[in-house]
Amino acid sequence: MVRGLLTKLIAAATITAALAGCSDADFSDAEKRTIVSMSLAALAPLPPDPTNRFADDPGAAALGATLFFDTGMSRDGNVACGTCHKIDRQFQDDLPRGIGVAETNRRTMPLAGVARDPFFFWDGRRDSLWSQALVPLENVLEHAGTRTAYAHYLKRRFGERYERIFQPLPELSMLPASAGPFGTPAEKAAWAGMSDAERKGVDRIFSDIGKAIAAFERSLVHGKTRLDRFADALAQGRSPSAEDDLSAEERHGLKLFIGKANCSTCHTGPRFTDNHFHNTGVPPVAGLPADRGRIAVVDEVLADPFNCAGKFRDGGEEACGELRFVQKSSPELVRAYKTPSLRNVAGRPPYMHAGQFATLEQVVSHYATAPKSVEGESEIHAVALSDGERAALVAFLKTLSE
Amino acid sequence: MTSAWRMVVGAFGLVALAIGFLSVVFLTAPAAPGPDLARSKNSAKGLYALSIAPEAGEPRQGDLHAWVVTVKTRQGAPVEGAEIAIGGGMPEHAHGLPTSPEATAYLGDGRYRIEGMKFSMTGWWQLKFGITAPAGADEATFNLVL
């Protein structure tokens, strides 16, 4: 009698324990909603960019594609946008830091979905895709060219195409062959020696180069991944096909990603980014110039002549809310860097803004241990993750590849 | 059955019972009560009655959008010419708002438009309004869960 009761109790307890254990493999309704919200199917259509009236002009996009891959768009004739943003490598270069004319200080970012960002670069130092495209052209470590040199080159090589899309080109023959606000002292002096009208004419051509490249970049989108097909099946209440189903380890990683590991707090939505900037305690790279992240470039984006408040913007100023209401002085901006999208992340080591980590395992370990930031406060709190949980997170991240 | 065998079965049974009991507790525990989500409340010192509403539908994560805050005296008279400072953030993540919202227009009847709001993450946000008007300076904190 006692033995019978004991046996029944043991059986009941075992079943209850087993059921509790099952909850690891299945998803709650709230988790399912989160997973569905991460599918590409949940991505809203790409909004228009009223600040660039050529943003959806096919001719401008075609010229932009030509310019993107043209090494003539550089001082030494060897560097194009596509040199670092490699078309067959997710538009990035697999290097810790991109190499243009010389090695830069930052990891080259992939470009799929880039047109959806409110701010550009790892630190958000530009506020539009078209103004972003102008910066590397004049950066001495990247294309290292000058504004008048680009204007001359554009007129010589693509003048007819440009005029068909944009507007008649001004007379440029009297302008210095190479002059601009960056470049050598002689080039800066030559730029300063030009009239306001001449500078404005060159700036107009320069901004149109950015607008053409931006029009091309708007076409770069993410493709569907296994996670998307899995999430779409969840959304439709059907079982995923065998090849789209996630393994027990991948499901475990997904559950951690949206749960205990807190990854989806920032890596959120179909692009796996909150489009914002955070100090996550990523260590600096020895030997590189001091890098304070977002706080160091707030003044730069506010003063940029090609920003949304400037005279090269098309459309009305109502499109400039992001710049107008930008966070200007918060201590959280110190060593804050953009939350990158995690789509296709497994295929593009190394990671972080200066290629600090060689593997996803190192990245997960960094976020689990949450070391202090060298400056400012890291927003990350340590999470105790077992070796198995870390491996599960990495396994899940691999389901984000096309 | 030997007494040693009984002891083993008994011990196993007790452990299984304990696991089962903890599992039931864990599975059926109510979620922690959320923050107070009222969109109308009195300011901390009781000088003003505030209410807030998004200007065009409930905000979505990541969208720049506007709110309307209505400031009245405790007696219900609209407060005009108030200076409004906006702050806030995510208490659980120890960070502030991702933007610098501002009161950009007085809409009449104690209503002020707050532009430049953005919630970059889902979760619990706090919005703090500092009100300075002839009746004095006071503030009110609202909770939002996205």
Automatic annotation (TrEMBL), chain A:
Its main location: periplasm. It comes from the Bacteria. Binds 2 heme groups per subunit. Keywords: Heme, Iron, Metal-binding, Oxidoreductase, Periplasm, Signal. Residues 248-401 form the Cytochrome c domain. Its cofactor is heme. The keyword Iron applies. It is found in: Periplasm. GO terms for cellular component: periplasmic space. InterPro entries: Cyt_c-like_dom, Cyt_c-like_dom_sf, Cytochrome_c_Peroxidase/MauG, Di-haem_cyt_c_peroxidsae, MauG/Cytc_peroxidase. GO terms for molecular function: cytochrome-c peroxidase activity; electron transfer activity; heme binding; metal ion binding. The keyword Membrane does not apply. This is C-type cytochrome. It comes from Aminobacter anthyllidis.
Automatic annotation (TrEMBL), chain B:
It holds the Pfam family YtkA. InterPro entries: YtkA-like_dom. Residues 58-128 form the YtkA-like domain. It comes from the Bacteria. This is FixH family protein.
